[in-house]
Amino acid sequence: MSTPSKRARKPIIVALDFAEPKDALALAARLEPTLCQVKVGKELYTAGGPQVVESLQSRGFDVFIDLKYHDIPNTVAGACRAATKLGAWMINVHAAGGRRMMEAAAEAVASNTLPGRDKPILIAVTMLTSMSAAELPEIGLEPDSDAVVARYAALANASGMDGIVCSAQEAPQMKQKFGAAFQLITPGIRLADDAKGDQSRVVTPVDAIRMGSDFLVIGRSVTSAKDPIATLAAINHSLESVL
Q: Which residues are catalytic?
């Protein structure tokens, strides 16, 4: 399997949220691996399997396998082991799975990293950015997004995670509490003139980096653009002053 070389990474992760692998690969062909990483989520992975990840890697992309593992510790460890052997650049689990699950995931990733590659970045999902505080009581949590994220983030950090998924609004608190090395991955990123779509909490790329986010997941702003690579280059250029 061809794997991407080590390099200085840009903060952008392009979400390849397509139903068909051919469409994802066609879009990837219009991007440049030195300008971004790419994310393969549940729909695309279910449709294309490991082969779509390998196809993206063969084109030079680092791949975030975004499957949000949440199961018993042994099952999640097995999934993380397989993703690591596949050459994933980033993997995620749900912090709600608990300490033992996250510790098992961390051990699986650390012990199965491919020779010559960096260990995959293992992150935990705290609270989905599509959820508002008003919805939290329906799942048994207090209606305080900051408190929920802080609790899950502390558990993730104590369980060996490299970072978390969080909104940019939570990033300053997370950096202050857990330090610069704790990686913050922020979805819900939109350009200034974009519609919010299905995200309740959104910010622009420049704002997110200023607030402490390390990586920004951007989907339709790039994938639906008339010229995706020009849009991607413009976003990266706009971030130069804040990086």
A: 68
Report helix, strand or coil for 213: coil
- The string over 79-92, giving b where at least 16 C-beta atoms fall within 10 Å of a residue's C-beta and e elsewhere, is bbbebbebbbbbbb
The domain total for the chain is 1
pLDDT tens by residue, 127-166: 887 888 999 999 988 899 888 889 999 999 999 999 999 8
Could you tell me if residue 5 is inside a domain? no
4: in domain: no
Under the phi-then-psi rule, with left for phi > 0, alpha for psi from -120 to 50, and beta for the rest, what region is 2? beta
Domain that holds residue 107: 12-238
Q: Per-residue pLDDT tens for 24-73?
A: 999 999 999 999 999 999 999 999 999 999 999 999 999 999 999 999 99
Q: Would you give the distance in Å from CA 114 to the centre of its chain?
A: 20
Q: Is residue 105 part of a domain?
A: yes
